[in-house]
Amino acid sequence: MNCAVYSLALIGLLALVVMMYNAVKKVMGRLEFGMIIAGIVAALGLALLSFNQPAGLFSSAYQGIFVQMYVPPLAVFFEILVLTAGLMLLLASWDYTKKTKYYGLSLLSMMGVLLLPFSRDILTLYFEWELMTVPTYALVLFSPSRKSVEGGVKYLIFGIISSALVIFGMILLIVTSGHTDLAGIGGFLSIPANRSDLTFFTGVLFVAGIG
Protein backbone atom coordinates (compact mmCIF):
# COMPACT_ATOMS: atom_id res chain seq x y z
CA MET A 1 0.00 0.00 0.00
CA ASN A 2 2.79 2.42 0.86
CA CYS A 3 4.46 1.83 -2.50
CA ALA A 4 2.06 4.26 -4.19
CA VAL A 5 3.07 6.99 -1.74
CA TYR A 6 6.77 6.20 -2.24
CA SER A 7 6.16 6.49 -5.98
CA LEU A 8 4.87 10.05 -5.47
CA ALA A 9 7.86 10.88 -3.27
CA LEU A 10 10.25 9.57 -5.93
CA ILE A 11 8.77 11.81 -8.64
CA GLY A 12 8.84 14.81 -6.28
CA LEU A 13 12.50 14.16 -5.44
CA LEU A 14 13.30 13.72 -9.13
CA ALA A 15 11.65 17.06 -9.99
CA LEU A 16 13.60 18.80 -7.19
CA VAL A 17 16.93 17.33 -8.32
CA VAL A 18 16.35 18.30 -11.96
CA MET A 19 15.41 21.89 -11.05
CA MET A 20 18.53 22.20 -8.88
CA TYR A 21 20.63 20.65 -11.65
CA ASN A 22 19.30 23.30 -14.04
CA ALA A 23 21.23 25.94 -12.06
CA VAL A 24 24.47 24.08 -12.86
CA LYS A 25 23.91 22.81 -16.38
CA LYS A 26 21.39 24.25 -18.82
CA VAL A 27 21.52 21.39 -21.33
CA MET A 28 20.53 17.82 -20.49
CA GLY A 29 22.97 15.04 -21.35
CA ARG A 30 22.04 11.50 -22.34
CA LEU A 31 23.15 10.14 -18.96
CA GLU A 32 21.00 12.61 -17.02
CA PHE A 33 18.05 12.00 -19.33
CA GLY A 34 18.44 8.25 -18.86
CA MET A 35 18.38 8.73 -15.07
CA ILE A 36 15.12 10.71 -15.33
CA ILE A 37 13.53 7.97 -17.43
CA ALA A 38 14.81 5.32 -15.01
CA GLY A 39 13.30 7.26 -12.09
CA ILE A 40 9.89 7.45 -13.78
CA VAL A 41 10.03 3.74 -14.64
CA ALA A 42 10.89 2.94 -10.99
CA ALA A 43 7.96 5.10 -9.80
CA LEU A 44 5.71 3.31 -12.28
CA GLY A 45 6.87 -0.05 -10.93
CA LEU A 46 6.10 1.01 -7.35
CA ALA A 47 2.63 2.14 -8.42
CA LEU A 48 1.99 -1.18 -10.19
CA LEU A 49 2.87 -3.05 -7.00
CA SER A 50 0.07 -1.17 -5.21
CA PHE A 51 -2.57 -1.58 -7.92
CA ASN A 52 -4.34 -4.68 -6.52
CA GLN A 53 -4.02 -3.63 -2.87
CA PRO A 54 -7.16 -2.62 -0.91
CA ALA A 55 -7.77 1.01 -0.03
CA GLY A 56 -5.92 2.18 3.04
CA LEU A 57 -4.63 5.14 4.96
CA PHE A 58 -0.94 6.04 4.88
CA SER A 59 0.17 8.10 7.86
CA SER A 60 3.52 9.20 9.19
CA ALA A 61 4.67 11.44 12.03
CA TYR A 62 8.02 13.15 12.61
CA GLN A 63 8.82 15.66 15.36
CA GLY A 64 5.19 16.70 15.82
CA ILE A 65 4.45 16.91 12.09
CA PHE A 66 1.69 14.45 11.12
CA VAL A 67 1.06 13.56 7.48
CA GLN A 68 -1.92 11.50 6.35
CA MET A 69 -2.88 10.32 2.86
CA TYR A 70 -5.74 8.10 1.72
CA VAL A 71 -4.68 5.61 -0.97
CA PRO A 72 -7.67 4.12 -2.87
CA PRO A 73 -7.23 1.77 -5.88
CA LEU A 74 -8.78 4.35 -8.23
CA ALA A 75 -6.13 6.92 -7.27
CA VAL A 76 -3.41 4.32 -7.90
CA PHE A 77 -4.94 3.63 -11.32
CA PHE A 78 -4.75 7.33 -12.23
CA GLU A 79 -1.19 7.41 -10.87
CA ILE A 80 -0.21 4.62 -13.25
CA LEU A 81 -2.00 6.39 -16.10
CA VAL A 82 -0.24 9.72 -15.46
CA LEU A 83 3.20 8.11 -15.04
CA THR A 84 2.78 6.21 -18.31
CA ALA A 85 1.68 9.38 -20.13
CA GLY A 86 4.54 11.36 -18.57
CA LEU A 87 7.06 8.71 -19.59
CA MET A 88 5.82 8.81 -23.20
CA LEU A 89 5.87 12.62 -23.17
CA LEU A 90 9.47 12.91 -22.00
CA LEU A 91 10.66 10.19 -24.39
CA ALA A 92 9.02 12.06 -27.28
CA SER A 93 10.49 15.39 -26.05
CA TRP A 94 14.14 14.35 -26.43
CA ASP A 95 14.11 15.22 -30.15
CA TYR A 96 12.33 18.51 -29.38
CA THR A 97 14.64 20.02 -26.77
CA LYS A 98 17.49 19.06 -24.47
CA LYS A 99 17.18 22.05 -22.12
CA THR A 100 17.16 20.98 -18.49
CA LYS A 101 14.47 23.42 -17.35
CA TYR A 102 11.95 21.88 -19.77
CA TYR A 103 12.25 18.50 -18.06
CA GLY A 104 12.19 20.06 -14.59
CA LEU A 105 9.00 22.00 -15.33
CA SER A 106 7.41 18.91 -16.89
CA LEU A 107 8.18 16.85 -13.78
CA LEU A 108 6.75 19.55 -11.49
CA SER A 109 3.54 19.64 -13.49
CA MET A 110 3.43 15.83 -13.46
CA MET A 111 3.80 15.89 -9.68
CA GLY A 112 0.75 18.14 -9.39
CA VAL A 113 -1.32 15.79 -11.57
CA LEU A 114 -0.18 12.77 -9.54
CA LEU A 115 -1.23 14.33 -6.24
CA LEU A 116 -4.74 15.30 -7.38
CA PRO A 117 -6.38 11.84 -7.10
CA PHE A 118 -5.07 11.44 -3.53
CA SER A 119 -6.61 14.70 -2.25
CA ARG A 120 -8.98 14.54 0.70
CA ASP A 121 -9.15 18.26 1.40
CA ILE A 122 -10.34 21.09 -0.84
CA LEU A 123 -7.39 23.31 0.14
CA THR A 124 -4.77 20.74 -0.82
CA LEU A 125 -6.76 20.06 -3.98
CA TYR A 126 -6.38 23.70 -4.99
CA PHE A 127 -2.64 23.83 -4.26
CA GLU A 128 -2.07 20.61 -6.23
CA TRP A 129 -4.07 22.05 -9.10
CA GLU A 130 -1.84 25.13 -9.10
CA LEU A 131 1.28 22.94 -8.95
CA MET A 132 0.00 21.24 -12.08
CA THR A 133 -0.84 24.41 -14.02
CA VAL A 134 1.81 27.00 -13.04
CA PRO A 135 4.74 25.15 -14.73
CA THR A 136 2.70 24.96 -17.93
CA TYR A 137 2.70 28.78 -18.13
CA ALA A 138 6.48 28.64 -18.49
CA LEU A 139 6.26 25.70 -20.89
CA VAL A 140 4.01 27.69 -23.23
CA LEU A 141 6.64 30.47 -23.20
CA PHE A 142 9.44 27.96 -23.64
CA SER A 143 10.02 28.59 -27.34
CA PRO A 144 11.14 32.22 -27.86
CA SER A 145 8.77 33.29 -30.60
CA ARG A 146 6.03 35.89 -31.01
CA LYS A 147 3.27 33.28 -31.00
CA SER A 148 4.52 31.57 -27.86
CA VAL A 149 4.79 34.88 -25.98
CA GLU A 150 1.29 35.87 -27.07
CA GLY A 151 -0.06 32.44 -26.11
CA GLY A 152 1.75 32.47 -22.78
CA VAL A 153 0.42 35.90 -21.81
CA LYS A 154 -3.15 34.91 -22.74
CA TYR A 155 -2.79 31.64 -20.83
CA LEU A 156 -1.45 33.49 -17.77
CA ILE A 157 -4.37 35.95 -17.79
CA PHE A 158 -6.90 33.15 -18.11
CA GLY A 159 -5.09 31.25 -15.37
CA ILE A 160 -5.25 34.18 -12.95
CA ILE A 161 -8.95 34.74 -13.65
CA SER A 162 -9.77 31.04 -13.27
CA SER A 163 -7.81 30.82 -10.01
CA ALA A 164 -9.73 33.80 -8.64
CA LEU A 165 -13.05 32.14 -9.53
CA VAL A 166 -12.01 28.84 -7.93
CA ILE A 167 -10.77 30.57 -4.74
CA PHE A 168 -14.00 32.57 -4.45
CA GLY A 169 -16.12 29.45 -4.91
CA MET A 170 -13.92 27.50 -2.51
CA ILE A 171 -14.28 30.14 0.24
CA LEU A 172 -18.06 30.21 -0.19
CA LEU A 173 -18.23 26.42 0.00
CA ILE A 174 -16.07 26.26 3.13
CA VAL A 175 -18.09 28.98 4.86
CA THR A 176 -21.48 27.47 4.02
CA SER A 177 -20.56 23.83 4.76
CA GLY A 178 -18.17 24.39 7.68
CA HIS A 179 -15.80 21.77 6.26
CA THR A 180 -12.59 21.73 4.26
CA ASP A 181 -12.41 17.96 3.81
CA LEU A 182 -14.15 16.60 0.72
CA ALA A 183 -16.04 13.93 2.68
CA GLY A 184 -17.54 16.57 4.99
CA ILE A 185 -18.48 18.80 2.06
CA GLY A 186 -20.05 15.83 0.27
CA GLY A 187 -22.05 14.94 3.37
CA PHE A 188 -23.25 18.54 3.68
CA LEU A 189 -24.38 18.72 0.05
CA SER A 190 -26.09 15.32 0.25
CA ILE A 191 -28.75 16.86 2.53
CA PRO A 192 -31.44 18.48 0.31
CA ALA A 193 -32.14 21.19 2.91
CA ASN A 194 -28.54 22.46 2.57
CA ARG A 195 -28.82 23.01 -1.15
CA SER A 196 -29.57 26.60 -2.02
CA ASP A 197 -28.91 29.22 -4.68
CA LEU A 198 -25.60 29.95 -2.96
CA THR A 199 -24.37 26.35 -3.29
CA PHE A 200 -25.49 26.34 -6.93
CA PHE A 201 -23.58 29.59 -7.52
CA THR A 202 -20.53 28.03 -5.84
CA GLY A 203 -20.74 25.06 -8.22
CA VAL A 204 -20.95 27.43 -11.19
CA LEU A 205 -17.79 29.22 -10.02
CA PHE A 206 -15.93 25.90 -9.71
CA VAL A 207 -17.00 24.72 -13.16
CA ALA A 208 -16.14 28.09 -14.74
CA GLY A 209 -12.76 28.34 -12.99
CA ILE A 210 -11.57 24.77 -13.62
CA GLY A 211 -13.15 24.56 -17.07
Folded structure, characterized:
The protein has helices at residues 2-22, 30-49, 73-93, 100-115, 122-140, 146-177, 182-189, 197-210; strands at residues 56-62, 65-71. Strand 1 and strand 2 (65-71) form a beta hairpin. The two termini are 33 Å apart. It is built from eight helices and two strands; from the N terminus they run ααββαααααα. The longest helix has 32 residues, at 146-177. The protein is mainly alpha-helical and 211 residues long. Helix content is 72%, strand content 7%. The mean pLDDT is 85.
List the helices and strands and how they pair.
Layout: H1 2-22, H2 30-49, E1 56-62, E2 65-71, H3 73-93, H4 100-115, H5 122-140, H6 146-177, H7 182-189, H8 197-210
Antiparallel strand pairs: 1-2
Helix pairs in contact: 1-2, 1-4, 2-3, 3-4, 4-5, 5-6, 6-8
Quick overview:
This protein has 211 residues and is mainly alpha-helical. It has eight helices and two strands, in the order H-H-E-E-H-H-H-H-H-H.
Residue stretches low in confidence (pLDDT < 50, at least 5 long) are: none
Radius of gyration, rounded? 19 Å
Strand order of the largest sheet: 1-2
Mean pLDDT: 85
Query: Counting H and I runs of at least 4 residues, what is the number of helices?
Result: 8
Order of helices and strands: HHEEHHHHHH
N-to-C span = 33 Å
Describe the sheet with the most strands. Answer: 2 strands, antiparallel
Helix content: over 70%
| Percentage of residues in strands | 5-15%
